[in-house]
Amino acid sequence: MSENIINTSIESIRLFESHIFELMSYTRKSESEVINLISTCMSERNKEWDEFSQYSTIDFHRLNQSNIFCLTKWNCEDKYQGIIRYINYITKLKTGNILDFGGGIGELSINIASGTNKIDFLEVPSNTLDYAKWRFKKRFLDIDVYTSLNQIKKQYDIIICLDVFEVLEKPLSHLKKFYEMLKNDGILIFSIGDVGVKEHPMNLKNNKDFFLDIETHCDNLGFKNSIFKDKFHLKIKQKT
Question: For 44-59, what is each residue's pLDDT tens digit?
């Protein structure tokens, strides 16, 4: 049944099935209930957007219940697993402290935390954050968890921001903050999702100009291209 939900490799299907059992344990729902929630998660997420974002976009991120199912599906697909493998490769060559900003259900942090680098995790207070923390605890991982950049008083060698800029109301302010939080020669790894598409209304249309000018914004702040190649729709910038 799993192969009917995600059109991907056997390896990712096996990973997806292990995620289903984790969700069963966390939600206390049956396998068929969890599979149904994953199958309908996109439409449910968009309904929650219409309901919760009327006054503030952050309300959606704090109150929605469908995101853990959407992220489970996305995190198990071949494309995301390729991203994880590439970032793991980078973190083995570029050691130090890492921040996973907007880390969702913690899939990337879990993978990196099994290595030698120290990784911190940031997500807004939400069911998504609660599930990520539950997953960290289950694996006995030493991951510091934050809910705001203002809580962090340290600098990082690597900051990772995957498909998050598009949902932020002030993405340029966050880009500037990331530059300040990076050590000299530190790198920022980020990806950008589609904006202005019906399927993802939480990817704010107002951010289109920011993305069109992203290279200029990075140059103006003092970023340069990293020695690591941009792959899997990732952009990798280094602080000068």
Answer: 999 999 999 999 999 9
* Rounded distance between C-alpha atoms, residue 217 and residue 177, angstroms: 13
For 90-130, strand residue ranges (E) read 97-101, 118-122
Structure tokens at 86: 């590439």
Tens digit of pLDDT for each residue in 71-92? 999 999 999 999 999 999 999 9
110 burial (CB, 10 Å; 0-12 / 13-18 / 19+) is buried
Number of other residues whose CB lies within 10 A of the CB of residue 192: 20
Q: Do residues 182 and 188 lie in contact, with contact meaning Cβ atoms separated by under 8 Å?
A: yes
Residue 183 structure tokens: 């050590």
- Structural domains of the chain in order of their starting residue, each with its CATH number: 8-75 (no CATH), 79-239 (3.40.50.150)
